[in-house]
Design goal:
Layout: H1 5-20, H2 24-37, H3 41-53, H4 85-92, H5 97-108, H6 112-116, H7 124-138, H8 148-162, H9 165-174, H10 200-208, E1 218-221, E2 226-229, H11 235-269, E3 287-290, E4 297-300, H12 304-307, H13 311-349, H14 352-360, H15 364-378
Antiparallel strand pairs: 1-2, 3-4
Helix pairs in contact: 1-2, 2-3, 2-4, 5-8, 7-8, 8-10, 13-14, 13-15
Length: 379
């Protein structure tokens, strides 16, 4: 209850300002709200004054209707002691006997399990179901019975503790989470060892995606310190999630990192070939040579003849010819693909020029590959 004092003071300030402006309905609305949040003598006195007299007795700086110039006195029901219709609606925004009985039940509970109506070995899913049901039933925007706000907080605190495996274990081992009857306002006194790590409103918003929005900053007291939040989640849990998320991300990226390292190491370990099929001054392959078997031209550095002779030279030239044939096959496939594309386009668009271009297209790589095949067969 102590946690609602700031909110009640705020409502009182709004009510006083409304009284000064002659807005009785608005003042009564906020006075009733202040009385529900945190009962006070001032709020009750102002409510009684407005209800009985239709005036602002006790409201500083306000002038009665009779003091205003050029206005006649009203003989409406407010002056006769009757409550205006709009004020009746404010007070009639009430509750059912079932809602009041529910609040009283929560108030009499001795432990968190009893509050949520579950057994001690209830699963996490049972906890969530129980919380969803009770949170919707006792939310202050839906349940206006006296004590509904405190019951809502008790439900949130019970779930927050029991849904935390560490706190639940300690709670089951060392004692109860509530000390009923210790509060001067009647029940709902949180045990200091089992405080919620999140406000009831924030917990509710996590479950229901911001349902029953209040549009204002909520102040929540848990018996030891006071938290003022505006739809923010508990920092410790968020930090834990970040830590866990960072480690999980590292584990997911680990295979990629290993692949990159293996690729880099393999490139460092594999030496570049001592030849090139083309002139490459950057790596020193400027000396032109020709293979003995297929007469393939390749380029080497100036020290090649000293390093490669006999069997070593034969292996190099075998590798040169293999690379050359592989390049010819790849280029021949590209040439055939390009020519087929021309033929297809000529057929679709009935273009004679495209067909002529396809027929006249030179297939140099394919021709060279054909000559090598003839050389093999002839050999």
């Amino acid at each position: 209850m102590e946690g609602n004092r700031d909110e009640a003071d705020k409502c009182l300030r709004i009510a006083r300002k409304a009284l000064q402006n002659g807005e009785h309905d608005k003042a009564l609305k906020f006075l009733n709200k202040a009385e529900k949040l945190y009962p006070s003598i001032e709020a009750k006195a102002l409510i009684d004054a407005i209800t009985k007299n239709g005036s602002t007795a006790g409201g500083p700086g306000h002038r009665n209707e009779s003091d205003k110039p050029n206005q006649g006195k009203s003989t409406g029901p407010a002056q006769n002691g009757a409550m205006p219709e709009t004020e009746k609606k404010v007070e009639s925004k009430a509750y059912t006997s079932e809602q009041l009985d529910g609040v009283q039940r929560i108030k009499k509970c001795n432990d968190f399990y009893e509050i949520l109506g579950i057994v001690k070995d209830a699963s996490e899913e049972d906890l969530k179901k129980a919380y969803r049901k009770l949170a919707l039933k006792f939310h202050p925007d839906k349940n206006h019975a006296p004590g509904a706000t405190e019951a809502f907080k008790a439900i949130g605190n019970a779930y927050a503790v029991l849904s935390n495996p560490v706190k639940r274990k300690d709670y089951d081992q060392y004692g109860e989470g509530l000390s009923p009857g210790n509060s001067q306002h009647g029940g709902f006194e949180f045990h200091r060892n089992y405080e919620a790590d999140i406000t009831p409103e924030d917990l509710f918003n996590m479950f229901f995606g911001g349902g029953f929005p209040t549009g204002s900053t909520q102040t929540y007291s848990n018996g030891r310190t006071r938290f003022t939040t505006q739809h923010t989640y508990h920092r410790t849990e968020r930090d834990d999630e970040r830590t866990d998320g960072g480690f999980s991300m590292f584990l997911q990226l680990l295979p990629i990192i290993v692949l990159i390292l293996v690729s880099v190491l393999s490139q460092l370990m594999v030496s570049s070939p001592p030849y090139s099929l083309y002139y490459r001054a950057a790596v020193g392959h400027t000396l032109k040579k020709q293979s003995i078997n297929l007469k393939v031209v390749y380029f080497v550095n100036k020290d090649f003849d000293k390093e490669y002779t006999g069997v070593a030279l034969q292996k190099v030239e075998k590798s040169v010819e293999d690379d050359y044939i592989t390049n010819l096959r790849n280029n021949c496939w590209k040439e055939r693909q390009e020519r087929n594309d021309y033929f297809y386009a000529a057929k679709v668009y009935r273009d004679v020029r495209l067909r002529k271009k396809a027929e006249l297209m030179r297939m140099e790589s394919c021709e060279k590959l054909a000559r090598l095949n003839e050389l093999y067969r002839g050999g």
